[in-house]
Amino acid sequence: MNTSSTGRCTLVGAGPGDPELLTLKAVKAIASATVILLDDLVNDAVLAHASPTARIVHVGKRGGCQSTPQAFIDKLLICAVQEGEQVVRLKGGDPFIFGRGGEEVDHLRAAGIDVQVVNGITSGLAAMANLGAPLTHREHAHGVVFVTGHAKPGDSGTDWVQLAHTAAQAKLTLVIYMGVSSLEHIAQGLLQGLPAHTPAAVVQNASLPAQREALTTLGELVHTVQGEQLQSPSIIVVGDVVQGARAWAAQPHAAQKAA
Ligand code: SAH
Fold first, then answer.
1. Is the CB of 122 under 6 A from ligand 1?
2. Are residues 85 and 171 in the same domain?
3. How far apart are CA 197 and CA 191, in angstroms?
4. Residue 91, ligand 1, Cβ within 6 A
5. What is the mean pLDDT of the chain?
6. Per-residue pLDDT band at 249 (split at 50, 70, 90)
């Protein structure tokens, strides 16, 4: 074990899954790490950049095990840095979009540890890019809301009715993370402020060979997700920009891709 006092921690975004979507900075950080802690949603392929001597710690729900408690992860990170290790905490997508990256940084800083952060491509961006459609468009969407469908226990969560009214008024695209398990509740709320014909898309495993997607409408969203058996990890996009994905899917290239 390295006993020098120059331990460091870098929180690194591993992107949505495709290892080619790593940033050069992420590759550098991974290559120089002596300890790497990684989440479930991080593709193991990114470890090809790691040193063969690096200690790799999976802290997700691998093999049906319980996810590692957050407090334990925080403790591991702090101890490793204090032992002088070059620690990389690899998180799926961008470390500061959901996934509790902010909480980890708070705990490290409270222990007097400075944390560097390397951005990653968040899955909400990758999902739409893989459908060939933008999230903003001068005609259809003036902005984007990244929102979680999964509230912290005890938190009442997002007011979907209010959000739908705001999205309709301000022409905003909604990009919903962790929304599959509460989809009925989410769709019910959104339908009170947005028309049922509002285009919607669901992308499971965005950017990975296992990617699956469905293009539908808000009114049909629940039915489509159930019928197509789409599951987590998925991004749900609601808004007129999804029309672009529909138009693209209708082109001859899409038929070739599906063949
Ligand atoms: N920090 C991550 C999000 C972590 S929250 C990011 O920036 O992407 C976990 C949720 O992210 C999942 O439930 C799912 O909604 C979404 N997600 C992560 N990877 C995904 C992928 N490859 N395809 C679709 N959704 C994904």
1. yes
2. no
3. 10
4. yes
5. 91
6. confident
